TrEMBL record:
<dbReference type="Pfam" id="PF07686">
    <property type="entry name" value="V-set"/>
</dbReference>
<dbReference type="InterPro" id="IPR013106">
    <property type="entry name" value="Ig_V-set"/>
</dbReference>
<keyword id="KW-0812">Transmembrane</keyword>
<protein>
    <submittedName>
        <fullName>Prostaglandin F2 receptor inhibitor b</fullName>
    </submittedName>
</protein>
<dbReference type="GO" id="GO:0016020">
    <property type="term" value="C:membrane"/>
</dbReference>
<feature type="domain" description="Ig-like">
    <location>
        <begin position="146"/>
        <end position="264"/>
    </location>
</feature>
<feature type="domain" description="Ig-like">
    <location>
        <begin position="395"/>
        <end position="529"/>
    </location>
</feature>
<keyword id="KW-0472">Membrane</keyword>
<dbReference type="InterPro" id="IPR013151">
    <property type="entry name" value="Immunoglobulin_dom"/>
</dbReference>
<feature type="signal peptide">
    <location>
        <begin position="1"/>
        <end position="18"/>
    </location>
</feature>
<keyword id="KW-1133">Transmembrane helix</keyword>
<dbReference type="InterPro" id="IPR013783">
    <property type="entry name" value="Ig-like_fold"/>
</dbReference>
<keyword id="KW-0393">Immunoglobulin domain</keyword>
<dbReference type="InterPro" id="IPR007110">
    <property type="entry name" value="Ig-like_dom"/>
</dbReference>
<dbReference type="InterPro" id="IPR051102">
    <property type="entry name" value="IgSF_V-set/TM_domain"/>
</dbReference>
<dbReference type="InterPro" id="IPR003599">
    <property type="entry name" value="Ig_sub"/>
</dbReference>
<dbReference type="Pfam" id="PF00047">
    <property type="entry name" value="ig"/>
</dbReference>
């Protein structure tokens, strides 16, 4: 029985409750006029789930003042009843065992030690039934005095945002400042914050720009905070706002914002670069060969100093030379250069001009804003065109076409020579090219290439000696039946190994003078055509005569028969022959082949030959 009593006592002690009442950790420092919430909760209690709470306050040695209760509406001290009635003082239940004492606008007279008590609902009085926290209310000395930024800033320029945030240094509070921008239809976006511990925190849209130096922080000695937004774009236009905050450190080292003030700094509009960008090219000029050409491109803009310019000179719409925004020249050469000679002034220099340098020149400018890894093209504009004329004395020479070998009959070789003489004004490094052309004789179609007198290209040799074949002559040129040659620097030849009747007609030789161009190739400088040359002969139709003769006549079976075949020709050169020997039993009977001999002397037996006799 004694052991059972001890066991019951032990169980009783093991399940007993010890009420715990706790409040917000303190002491708390708050600013006059700001809302304040003091939390109170109770745990490990017996009785109803919903607990009641009472708040009292004590200032110095004075007695306790009843503030508010969750269950007694007449609990509040008469000095606080008006504030309770107006809702300035209230208690809000957050749960069955959690409430908050809320002060809508705290006053300096609210500085006191606040005690939260819970009436006991426990069967045994155990634990703590109240807890207290000290609240200190200080005057609101936070001041935010921004300086209005320039209302209009050119694209690519800088926006300077100065904001002076101060307070009285009577308590352990710390300042922070935040710059934000309000764009039409978009919520306020933070740009950058200098925290109470001096740390810099950037907004999500500003982190990379701050890292690239596009946003810079400046803190002046007088306590004013300055922010410079460099290389502005259209996205930087809007209303700028400065927010100052006062902070205190609470238990656990956590920062608590106790008061803040937001002030509009002013609206900023960004002027587009395209609106003020001006590009002018100067001026029309006439030059001689080997002169030096100088053209100037003048660029003006309202924000010229903030722009990175990319300048390109165009000739007849083609790029001649470019100067990048990084100062690197593209497509330049020792004779072609582009340089910046002053703010907004760019000079194109071409030394030793050639005829190919003539044309319409214009200056294209692309304006870039930004910096670091953040560049974007703000505007592009092309200047008025200026005309550049190059006076040159073209090469001059005479060309003649003579037959070196004329055909007498079809199949004879033909050779025509094109001679270039009396060459003057031909630049060093120049070369000659030739093109051969043919016009057929009028007449019936026959075997002619065309029935009309259309000029047909035979082939040409360019300045580098490359052969280009005419469509109708390609096969004969590729097989070597027709040959184009340059036998001397000033002499060209056209040769037909076997002239055909379709080759009769009128021939001309077209000689072109080529000179070195600015781009490194060759350009046409002059062209001369020979007088036409007729190539024709009296066509003579070829003919063959074949005579068969008995050499040995067979008079009986088993005897030998021998015959000869004599061939003669007219108007044929070195022909080859094929021979066919046939037999016929009678004039009316069928013809049978005995044997044949090809032009290559290949012998074949015919069907009339007994295989045993072959």
């Amino acid at each position: 029985m004694e052991n059972l009593s001890l066991l019951l006592l032990f169980l009783s002690i093991g399940v007993s409750h010890a009420r715990v009442v706790s409040v917000s950790p303190g002491p708390l420092l708050r600013v006059e006029g700001q809302p304040v919430s003091l939390r109170c909760d109770v745990t490990d209690y017996e009785g109803p789930r919903e607990q009641d709470f009472e708040w009292t306050m004590q200032q110095g040695e004075a007695g306790s003042i009843q503030v508010i209760s969750t269950f007694d509406q007449r609990y509040s001290d008469v000095s606080l009843s008006d504030r309770v009635t107006s809702g300035d003082l209230s208690v809000v239940r957050l749960g069955d065992s959690v409430v908050e004492l809320r002060i809508r606008e705290v006053r300096s007279s609210d500085s006191a030690a606040y005690l939260c008590s819970t009436p006991s609902t426990d069967s045994v009085f155990s634990g703590n039934y109240n807890a207290g926290v000290t609240l200190k209310v200080i005057a609101n000395t936070l001041k935010v005095a921004p300086k209005a930024p320039e209302p209009v800033v050119p694209e690519g320029g800088d926006i300077t945002l100065s904001c002076n945030v101060t307070h009285h240094l009577t308590d352990s509070t710390y300042l922070s400042v935040t710059w934000s921008i309000q764009r039409p239809g978009i919520p306020l976006v933070d740009i950058l914050t200098v925290g109470p511990d001096g740390d810099v925190v950037t907004g999500s849209d500003s982190a990379q720009r701050y890292a690239d130096g596009g946003i810079r922080l400046v803190i002046r000695r007088d306590g004013a905070f300055g922010l410079v937004v460099a290389g502005v774009t259209q996205a930087d236009a809007g209303m700028y706002v400065c927010t100052g905050r006062d902070w205190t450190r609470e238990e656990g080292g956590q920062w608590k914002n106790i008061v803040e003030k937001t002030v509009e700094m002013g609206a900023v509009a960004v002027t587009p670069t395209a609106r003020s960008l001006s590009v002018v090219a100067k001026s029309n000029t006439t030059l001689n060969i080997d002169d030096t050409m100088t053209l100037t491109c003048l660029v003006a803009a309202g924000n010229l100093a903030s722009l990175a310019l990319e300048v390109t000179w165009l000739v007849d719409g083609r790029t001649a030379v470019s100067l990048g925004r990084d100062g690197v020249v593209s497509n330049g050469s020792p004779s072609v250069g582009l340089e910046r000679t002053g703010p907004g002034e760019f000079r194109l220099v071409v030394r030793g001009v050639r005829g190919s340098d003539k044309g319409m020149y214009s200056c294209r400018v692309r304006a870039w804003v930004g910096g670091g890894g953040r560049w974007y093209q703000a505007a592009e504009k092309t200047s008025n065109p200026v005309q550049v004329l190059v006076t040159q004395i073209k090469p001059n020479f005479a060309v003649t076409l003579t037959p070196s070998s004329s055909p007498q009959v079809t199949g004879d070789p033909t050779e025509l020579a094109c001679h270039v003489t009396n060459i003057t004004h031909f630049l060093a490094g120049g070369r000659l090219g030739v093109a051969w052309e043919y016009t057929p004789l009028p007449g019936p179609p026959g075997d002619r290439l065309t029935t009309t007198q259309t000029t047909l290209p035979i082939g040409s040799l360019d300045a580098h000696g490359n052969l280009k074949s005419g469509t109708l002559y390609r096969d004969r040129l590729e097989s070597g039946a027709i040959v184009l040659t340059r036998v001397e620097p000033d002499t060209f030849k056209l040769r037909f190994l076997r002239t055909q009747e379709v080759d009769m007609g009128v021939y001309v030789c077209r000689v072109t003078a080529w000179t070195p161009s600015r781009q490194g190739g060759m350009e046409e400088a002059a062209e001369f055509l020979t007088p036409p040359l007729n190539v024709r002969w009296e066509p003579k139709r070829p003919s063959l005569t074949a005579v068969a003769q008995r050499v040995r006549e067979a008079v009986a079976g088993g005897a030998t028969f021998e015959m000869s075949c004599t061939v003669s020709h007219v108007h044929l050169q070195d022909p080859g022959y094929s021979v066919l020997v046939q037999t016929q039993e009678s004039v009316d009977s069928a013809t049978r082949t005995v044997l044949s001999l090809s032009p290559d002397s290949v012998l074949q037996h015919g069907g009339a030959t007994d295989p045993n006799r072959r």
